Amino acid sequence: MKYKQEASGCKCDPKYCKNDCKNDKECKTKIQYIIDNAAYNLDIDKVKHNSGLRFIAKICLNNLWGHFGMRDNFTQKEYCFTLEHITKIVFNEKYKDISTMILDENIVLTEYKEKEEYSKPNPSVNVYIALFTTAHARLKLYELLDILQERVLYMDTDSCIYNDDGSEACKKVENMMGSKLGDLTDEIVSKHNANHIKQFISAGPKDYSMKLDTEKLVSCCKGFRLNAEVEEKITLDKKKKNSY
User: Fold this and answer.
1) How far is 170 from 200, CA to CA, in rounded Å?
2) Alpha-carbon distance 21 to 14, whole Å?
3) For the chain, what is the total number of helices (H) and then of strands (E)?
4) Above 70 in pLDDT, residue 120?
5) Which of 198, 174, 170, 195 is nearest to 184 (CA)?
6) Between residues 13 and 234, which one has the greater pLDDT?
7) Which of 32, 63, 72, 207 is most solvent-facing, going by the fewest CB within 10 Å?
8) Cα 31 vs. chain centroid, distance in angstroms?
9) 149 in the Ramachandran plot: left (φ > 0), alpha (ψ -120 to 50) or beta?
10) What does the sequence similarity comment in the record state about its family (predicted)?
11) What is the DSSP track for 10-79?
12) Other C-beta atoms within 10 Å of 39: how many?
């Protein structure tokens, strides 16, 4: 968490830092604000935007939290070259859901799961921490939805896209944005270097496209890896055409 916060720099907080104040005295003051309000000790000399280091830190965090709620009884696979090896698996009382597939005249792929009473629990799994983390994220999301009401256009596990109509509700949400642990982040500013969304359309969970005020197009489509070829076919205009 410390490395991710430091690698985010002060640019990640649009309320306290502008894109053109990376190295002046004003920026140092804003970095100090982030350090003073952090939930852990940060090194002021290391609070600099570093997208590569931030990505690595984020992956490490996701891996850590993911292990708390990870299933530990996965399907096992073994390549068998002898009848003795196959028999040892098929007639083992510790295994269930056994299946075999002949790959060629010399190799048989065998799949199985361990029965619950024989399965060894993963020492890194902690369901209570996983439940608390997931539930707390939902509570933060519901708090946001309760404020915005019908202004919400799209929501996901930890994100929300809404229509900013200048109301007191939207101003309240804006005041919830910041760099501290638990604050909201305006990803339109921090991630895409834009100010607002001009057009937005969603066909369902993890399936949306939007055009920003910089004319940049941002899309998400579950099940597809968005490369140049796919983005030419899954466009904002095509989604609009298929949705109406």
Assistant:
1) 18
2) 11
3) 9, 8
4) yes
5) 174
6) 234
7) 63
8) 25
9) left
10) Belongs to the DNA polymerase type-B family.
11) TTT-TTT--TT-SSSHHHHHHHHHHHHT-SS---GGG----HHHHHHHHHHHHHHHHHHT----PPEEEE
12) 11
Residue 34, classified by CB atoms within 10 Å of its CB into exposed (0-12), middle (13-18) or buried (19+), is buried
Q: What does residue 36 show for φ and ψ, rounded to 5 degrees?
A: -65, -25
| Structure tokens given for 103 | 């790959």
Nearest CA among 11, 164, 210 for reference residue 173:
164
Task: Note the pTM of the prediction, 2 decimals.
Answer: 0.63
pLDDT of the residue at 31? 67
The token pair at 144 is 């946001």
Tokens, residue 200: 């937005």
Phi-psi region of 243 (alpha: psi -120 to 50; beta: other; left: phi over 0): alpha
* Token pair recorded at residue 82: 């002898």
Residue 104 parent element (H or E): none
Contact 165, 173 (CB under 8 A): no
Beta bridge partners of 109: 79, 101
User: Quick one: pLDDT band at residue 48, thresholds 50, 70, 90?
Assistant: confident
C-alpha 47/C-alpha 208 separation (Å) is 33
CB 170 within 8 A of CB 177: no
Element (H, E) at 155: strand 152-155
Task: Give the position of tokens 């982040």.
Answer: 185
Half-sphere exposure of 47 (CA within 13 A, CB side): 25
Residue 12's Cβ-count burial label (10 Å; 0-12, 13-18, 19+) is buried
Report yes or no: 206 and 221 within 8 Å, Cβ to Cβ. yes
Phi, psi dihedrals of residue 204, rounded to the nearest 5°? 150, -175
